[in-house]
Automatic annotation (TrEMBL):
Region named Disordered: 73-98
Phylogenetic placement of the source organism: Bacteria, Bacillati, Actinomycetota, Actinomycetes, Pseudonocardiales
Name of protein: Tail assembly chaperone
Organism: Lentzea flava
Length: 118
């Protein structure tokens, strides 16, 4: 809705005038900082983080590192090192399927005699 002015939920309904192919094309062309792209990248913490924001964070980090180096070189006491600009971190998802649970139970139930030989 924010980028195209189209409500995707209503556009998915029959009679909306959009084909599935058109909707997929719209979704694929969403900017990287959109809600949908953020969800596909790992979560809401990525919302708004496009290439320009990453470059701005790198620029701020470079300026603070240069300032730190200058102050360190020209002072008798060593100043505290600067913290980098926080960036979103991709969270790793745990395997939570029925098959993964069965594998975990089977591994836990193995006796030493059943261990594969190497």
């Amino acid at each position: 809705m924010q980028y195209y002015g189209v409500n995707l939920v209503s556009a998915l309904r029959a009679g909306s005038g959009f084909s599935p192919r058109q909707l997929l094309a719209l979704i694929r062309q969403l900017p990287v900082e959109s809600r949908t792209a953020a969800g596909m990248r790992g979560g809401e913490q990525f919302r708004g983080w496009g290439p320009d924001r990453y470059l701005a964070a790198l620029l701020v980090d470079a300026v603070t590192q240069n300032t730190y180096a200058f102050v360190s070189a020209n002072s008798t006491r060593r100043p505290k090192a600067p913290e980098p600009v926080p960036r979103p971190a991709k969270t790793t998802r745990k395997k939570t399927g029925a098959f993964a649970a069965m594998v975990a139970r089977a591994k836990a139930a193995r006796t030493p005699e059943e261990e594969p030989h190497q």
